[in-house]
Amino acid sequence: MVKQINFVGILTIYKSEWSRFRRTFWQSLITPIVTTMLFLLVFGNAIGERVGGINGVSYAAFIIPGLIMLTVLNESLSNSSFGIYMPKFTGTIYEILSAPLSPIEIVIGYVGSAASKSILLGLLIFFTSTFFIDLPIAHPIPMVLLLVIVSCTFSMIGFTIGVIAKSFDHLQFVPLLIITPLTFLGGAFYSMDMLPAVWKTITLFNPIVYVISAFRWSFLGTATVNLNASLMVIFLMFFVVLSLIIIIFKTGYRIKT
Questions:
Q1: CB-CB contact of 214 with 149 (8 Å)
Q2: Helices (H), 91-206
Q3: Does residue 30 lie within any of the structural domains?
Q4: pLDDT of amino acid 3
Q5: Cα–Cα distance between 127 and 106 in angstroms, integer?
Q6: How far lies 139's CA from each of 7, 62, 151, 214, in Å?
Q7: Is-contact 114 79, C-beta < 8 A?
Q8: So what's the pLDDT on residue 1?
Q9: 131 HSE (CA, 13 A, CB side)
Q10: Residue 182 domain flag
Q11: Could you tell me if residue 241 is inside a domain?
Q12: Which residue from 22, 30, 162, 221 could staple onto 84, CB 3.0 to 4.6 Å apart?
């Protein structure tokens, strides 16, 4: 007999996380938008005038997909990691584990909430940027789908970080020292075609390159990395981190011990 999905339990976790989001509205939503617009102002206008156009569009329009991804990746990680770490820190994680919820339902609740916030934030940044620059969008539906899958993937990565973290300092280690540098080096502010051949080859080992390239393709219709390769890397990350979460719940690592 197939177990019925506990939609009430999933919705309870989801609403609980969103209530925290509403309590920290300025920090969670307004601050990232303002920060992104400052990036756009400095890089898009001040530096953009000297750089000129890239791939047939203005420099400001070129960097917007990278700016959106920079914000979405960091917010996905921080929201989901903090969301699952707090029950561990306060001890309420045992109440969640004893509830009639399967591991996948718990993950859907926390990851779904974090991903929803990141998707909302990404769309708001996109719409806000259209007031300042003429931003093309060649493939709107793939753009939204890529935003969803990337948000879910990095929310699951954040969920994993929150589970294995031993302190609040550990929550910031991966986003600040790994993800943010990889994003800056992943073509968020430049085209890979500008790099020498050696550095271009080295950059291909950075998974964020494929994420930004695919997302930029949905806007401009062109990509610096083969689109099929980008999609393969994105879905590979999704299934790898999903498998890791399954292993964590099966072993109870840092959850039940």
A1: no
A2: 93-98, 103-129, 140-164, 168-174, 180-184, 197-203
A3: yes
A4: 66
A5: 32
A6: 33, 15, 18, 11
A7: yes
A8: 45
A9: 5
A10: yes
A11: yes
A12: 162
- The answer to whether residue 1 sits within a structural domain is no
Number of domains in the chain: 1
The pLDDT profile of the chain, 257 residues, written as one tens digit per residue, is: 446 888 998 999 999 888 877 777 677 778 888 888 888 877 766 676 666 677 778 888 888 999 899 889 988 998 899 889 988 888 888 888 888 888 889 999 999 999 999 999 999 999 988 888 888 899 999 999 999 999 999 999 999 999 988 888 878 877 778 888 888 888 888 888 888 888 888 889 999 999 999 999 999 998 889 999 999 999 999 999 999 998 888 887 877 66
Report CA torsion sign: 31, 89, 110, 160: positive
Beta-bridge mates of residue 45: none
Domain containing residue 204: 7-251
Nearest 10 degrees: Cα torsion 250, 252, 256, 257: 160
28: its two tokens: 């969670």
CA angle 94, 238, 242 (to 5 degrees): 30
CA distance 203 to 30: 32
Q: At 238, is the secondary structure helix, strand, or coil?
A: helix
